[in-house]
Amino acid sequence: MSGTDPALSSPRVPARAWLRPALMLVGGALAALLFVQVDQQLAAFAIGVFSLFMAYWTSPLRSGPHTPLAEAQAREADGTAPTIVLWAPGDPASARLQAAIRAPREDLIWVNVFKDPAAQQLLGRYGGERMLPLALQGEDAARIDNVSELFAFQDRTRQGGAPGGAAGAGPTTPDPGADPSGRSEQRGEDEPGSPRA
Questions:
Q1: How far apart are CA 109 and CA 97, in angstroms?
Q2: Which pTM value belongs to this model?
């Protein structure tokens, strides 16, 4: 990974990341127009403001917490072993996870894949955007749908004995060729003692 690698020069925001915000804007504008037609300016204004907020919240423009992947991996290597969470603005599962964990936590590092080309490349090795949000702890990785799954993942990987759960990739590592619809069926089933959500 040299510094002159064009794949790592700038992050790429996929065009489909703008689809949801565009639909929010168009839908909000149409709803506001309908309310204006029936002489309900206050409702039209409220809907317009709400649709603008939701378009921003679901778009890649929302910054959210971000630590460069190289810095996050350096913190992981120094013995503190925090969990790295790859996320993207506009991804509903990422937004739900961040809404549930509002306060900063010492054991979590958030990496925005739209701001970090190295994180985007790493995410691609695990199956791409369908794996978001992706939790990484040492050699282990798992797609996380909620806070319970995140804490269960941390417990499983830390029970491996070494920092970051260096017991190996094991069952928590996602299969890049796996069907994303079956993502929650495999998690934790091979480990009878693992905490359940």
A1: 13
A2: 0.61
